[in-house]
Amino acid sequence: MIEKLKQLAIGGGAIDEEQALLLSQCTDKEALYKAAHEITRHFMGNKFDTCSIINAKSGNCSENCKWCAQSGYYETKVTLYPLLPAEECVRHAVHNRKQGIGRFALVTSGKKLSDGEIEKVTGIVRDIKQACDIKCCASLGLLDKEQLKKLRASGVENYHCNIETAPSYFRTLCTTHTIEQKMKTIRVAREEGFRICSGGIIGMGETMEQRIEMALFLQRAHVHSIPLNMLQPIPGTTLGNVPLLSEEEFMDTIALFRFINPQAYLRFSGGRALLSRQAQQKALYIGINSAIIGDLLTTIGSRVEEDKELFTEAGYSLAEDTDWVR
């Protein structure tokens, strides 16, 4: 069954829900992982995409997402500050580019930025573009068409908006905005010429069936950059005491995402520090072929040189063109 579905994926066919459920019940994990590895290399070769982020505006968010340290609904130790000065963002972008990182994302807390904040962000992006040749990404919430148009004109190439979890489970975790609003933002961003990056967090109480639902949702939305965060429970949030996901369950999830989204960059994101080095090596073998490196938002990130060594030891090249389809 694994071989048959691997050949289906390699032949350009789409794995459906029933087939994905069969894969999730497979007891021969090594055969599943090997097949996912072969799908990865068939479509994506040895290309590895690196990006970095800066928490450009922190805390005081109006949304009640149960996992998030930046929500104003919870008492956490997150530092609160408004939009960072341009000089600080440019300094980080230049530093990351000097370390060989390909992309730099401005990430802000809150449901969306105001028009005044968008003006400041577009100025920051222009300053970054003048200072270095790093590719610019943004994750600024549920922006409208005019805001996205201005952002694109400033030089931002990729827009990030996580769907976070399966559509059927989203309202369990957040009630102040909807999955439909997220998908509208993604649709409009694509219309404005952005590449789309969208994924979610694994281990928030969802079932494997719901993870499959999420992967299929991203398949149908033609998303080709999928961050896979592993929940790192943050004290003070509603999910602060959720048991950690097992490494094996995370490996299984990566394999299923690869079968369902064979031509996507599956991206190491938040929570990777919870994995042993051996588990990280396994994930890279199975199908992880991109990563956020450097410091993350509100949790510990990673050391760039150590990461580059990890990725190249797994057989990946950090010097390839990794732009994906829009």
What's the overall average pLDDT, rounded?
Answer: 95
Q: How many helices in DSSP terms? A: 12
Q: Hey, roughly how much beta strand do the residues contain?
A: 5-15%
* Share of helical residues: 40-55%
Straight-line N-to-C gap: 33 Å
Class by SSE composition: alpha/beta
Low-confidence spans: none
The profile of the biggest β sheet is: 9 strands, parallel
Q: How would the global form be characterised?
A: globular
Number of strands: 9
Physical arrangement of strands within the biggest beta sheet: 5-4-3-2-1-9-8-7-6
H/E element sequence: HHHEHEHEHEHHEEHEHEHEH
Radius of gyration: 19 Å
What can you tell me about this protein's structure?
The chain has a nine-stranded parallel sheet with strand order 5-4-3-2-1-9-8-7-6. The protein is 43% helix and 14% strand. Helix 2 runs antiparallel to helix 9 and helix 3 crosses helix 10. The longest helix has 17 residues. The protein is of the alpha/beta class. Helix 4 links the parallel strand 1 and strand 2. It is globular and about 55 Å long.
Would you spell out the secondary-structure blueprint of this structure?
Elements: H1 2-10, H2 17-24, H3 29-44, E1 49-57, H4 86-98, E2 103-108, H5 115-131, E3 135-139, H6 145-154, E4 156-160, H7 167-173, H8 179-191, E5 195-197, E6 200-202, H9 208-220, E7 225-230, H10 247-260, E8 265-268, H11 277-286, E9 288-292, H12 304-313
Parallel strand pairs: 1-2, 1-9, 2-3, 3-4, 4-5, 6-7, 7-8, 8-9
Helix pairs in contact: 1-3, 2-9, 3-10, 4-5, 5-6, 9-10, 10-11
Question: Summarize this, please?
Answer:
The protein has 12 helices and 9 strands. By secondary structure, the chain is an alpha/beta fold. The chain has a 9-stranded parallel β-sheet.
